[in-house]
Amino acid sequence: xxxxxxxxxxxxxxxxxxxxxxxxxxxxxxxxxxxxxxxxxxxxxxxxxxxxxxxxxxxxxxxxxxxxxxxxxxxxxxxxxxxxxxxxxxxxxxxxxxxxxxxxxxxxxxxxxxxxxxxxxxxxxxxxxxxxxxxxxxxxxxxxxxxxxxxxxxxxxxxxxxxxxxxxxxxxxxxxxxxxxxxxxxxxxxxxxxxxxxxxxxxxxxxxxxxxxxxxxxxxxxxxxxxxxxxxxxxxxxxxxxxxxxxxxxxxxxxxxxxxxxxxxxxxxxxxxxxxxxxxxxxxxxxxxxxxxxxxxxxxxxx
Length: 303
Description:
- The structure is a single chain.
- Helix content is about 45%, strand content about 20%.
- By secondary structure, it is of the alpha+beta class.
- The strands form three sheets. Strands 3, 4, 6, 7, 9 and 11 form a six-stranded antiparallel sheet that branches. It has a five-stranded antiparallel sheet with strand order 2-10-5-8-14, covered by helices on one side.
- A hairpin with a 2-residue loop joins strand 6 (about 45-50) and strand 7.
- It starts with a strand and ends in a 5-residue tail after the last helix.
């Protein structure tokens, strides 16, 4: 199978078919004749490609290009939404999916199928040929995918719909490529958790919400919480609070800052909420810590 390379700026995707599968199992590796996007709406699936296995969970999205050997295992408790598409409008009159072929049979595809319906274009990003992309609970990717689903569901298959969906597919693939560069498909949950922790250490003095962190890393906040808790034993909110309290205690003990200034320095909007959180955490009010520090200073003898 020979493929022509095409960049994201040159494609004009055509979605030929979409379907929900409650069970999708390949006994061995197969090769698709068109490009495919698998979206795990519910349940869990195992996706094998390029010698690696990925466990896909709810809200994960996987793109695999035409001609790439892969194997999918998703059982009856799962709900997998699949888009079958070409990167050009060359086959825009063909509105059916083509069953994938086993690797051993890929050279024996009937000419009538391969000549007319195979998508012989493969996406490139710079000098890199893209065979698959794994998007892990990325809210931006999900937003554009759901827009495509809405058009396919609510509109008849006409030229207007084809063109709208084509434009949305360009954005979707662009976003998947963008975030694939930011967070590699090989990046582990441990690495991601450490990046979130580093972000907290650098920004704890600002107002931070879970939504802010989710947007910063382009991952679902539930998934980010799970990664951080697995690594630290605490949720993101609890880890942030712990770190703020640690920094607040240091400032109260070793600086001349007032309680108000300390509260502001560790990301609290007012002294009252800071004092309540501090006392709950240390069982002592911040003003008493500051008072103890002052008494100790008076007893110091300088030589």
